[in-house]
Design a protein that fits this description.
Elements: H1 3-34, E1 45-49, E2 52-59, E3 62-69, E4 74-76, E5 89-91, E6 95-101, E7 105-113, H2 116-119, E8 134-143, E9 153-155, H3 161-173, H4 178-208
Antiparallel strand pairs: 1-2, 2-3, 3-6, 4-5, 6-7, 7-8, 8-9
Helix pairs in contact: 1-4
Length: 209
């Protein structure tokens, strides 16, 4: 590559980076204008490390811990109805709920948000319709931190219907109910958006460097 060609390539990259930095500056301002604060999740201690989020609460003789990741979790809250107004975007991450006894024994639930279609179909063994906003996908148990693929896990959709209901009641009694999960989705939506703005800001710095 000749000196002139190298200089041209550098100039093209610099021009492209400059255009990106300009666009990002405008985009950041727009996204900040559209940002919102998430609801306070009463009774839970919330900590976040980037996209990873942990919620904990202490109860008599046990600890409840929810872990999730907001990456790739944003979708429209309702189907696009064809109107000019863009549908609201919400973060609906899969999440794990661990009920940890004082002796270290852990009952772990892997849960996911229900789609409107799924909400109309009750789990196997249930006859009545239900309107849960989340479902239990998997249940497992382990000791201490010894969670691995070697631990047996049962899928939520093959559980006996009554046992499934008992598990949902167990979660509800510990504060993981429809209302809380909807609030958690709103909190995750705000957190994911703040992470997106942070990425745009880092990209702007990168383009200017």
């Amino acid at each position: 590559m000749t000196c002139s060609t190298l200089q041209s390539a550098r100039t093209m990259a610099t021009k492209g980076d400059g255009e990106m930095a300009k666009f990002l500056q405008e985009e950041i301002a727009t996204e900040k204008k559209n940002s919102r604060s998430g609801p306070k999740l009463e009774g839970w201690n919330v900590s976040a490390d980037g996209a990873e989020v942990k919620l904990t609460k202490e109860l008599a003789g046990e600890k409840v811990m929810i872990t999730l990741n907001v990456n790739h979790t944003v979708d429209s809250a309702e189907p696009d109805d064809g109107s000019e107004e863009a549908p609201e975007m919400l973060s609906r991450p899969n999440f794990e709920v661990d009920i940890i006894k004082s002796n270290g024994k852990t009952l772990s639930f892997t849960c996911s948000f229900s789609t409107p279609e799924e909400a109309e179909q009750p789990p196997q063994g249930q006859e009545e319709e239900y309107d849960d906003v989340f479902a239990i996908d998997e249940v497992t148990m382990f000791d201490g931190d010894n969670q691995s693929d070697a631990n047996y896990a049962v899928a939520g959709d093959i559980l006996d219907g009554y046992l499934y209901d008992l598990f949902m009641t167990m979660l509800e009694e510990r504060g993981v109910d429809n209302g809380f999960v909807e609030s958690m989705s709103e909190w995750c939506s705000a957190h994911e958006h703040s992470q997106y703005i942070g990425l745009l800001q880092e990209l702007e710095k990168f383009a200017k460097f």
